[in-house]
Description:
The chain has about 230 residues and is mostly helical. It has a single domain (about 30-225), classed as Heme Oxygenase, Chain A. About 70% of the residues lie in helices and about 0% in strands. The protein has helices at about 5-15, 30-55, 60-75, 85-95, 100-105, 110-125, 130-145, 150-160, 165-180, 180-185, 195-225. Helix 2 runs antiparallel to helix 4, helix 2 runs antiparallel to helix 11 and helix 6 (about 110-125) crosses helix 7 (about 130-145). The structure holds fe (ii) ion (FE2).
Amino acid sequence: xxxLRLSDIASTALDAARTWPWVLAPLTLPRGQAYILQHVLRNxxxxxxxxxxxxxxxxxxAIVRRTISQMGEELVYDPAxxxxxxxxxxxxxxNVGLTDAQMNATVPETETAAALGLLEHLARDWHWTxxxxxxxxxxxxxxxxxxxxxHPDRWIEHLGLTEQQVFFFRYHLSADLxxxxxxxxxxxxxxxxxxxxxxxxxxxxxxxxxxxLFYAGVERQAQRLATGETPAA
Length: 233
Ligand SMILES: [Fe+2]
């Protein structure tokens, strides 16, 4: 079997992402609101479950330090913006007409719950490299896939938001470039024994299916919001 290349993981992920719901669909207000509501859940899950589950088994101190500092930036304080990322996420939600009560009370769509359940299994029970890919592959995709709705320009163009109002997305495009992608995954290479490579080969389709399910959940909620349903508060 040929050696596993990080560039193959990246190109496989990009090919898959082109087929996911929501990602390349025309951005509407319901689609924007649904993204924030489901992303709030994913954001909490990544800091409370996903990253702790694999990083606690990771023997590479540099990777552990970077991942835990990323959790700190999410939940506690990012010196670059003098706030936690949760603060700018909630601001982003308000900018598309959501209330704090709606963001606090948001519940997962069926597919979102399935996505997070699958990712939790991968992070807890598979090799830590599979968990790391599971928590970083979407950050790579959203920075590398042209036309991805994560891009702040889409929110300006389609929803009429100002540059100031899309700060959450603008900031994360640069932050996530540092958090994911081939260069960032490079420290994984010394740990890629044939057994670990085999796990990654089997795990990658599951990781990508979890991402597809996440976006299917976003799209499902977007469809309901488009017919006039109000998010729970
Ligand atoms: Fe963040």
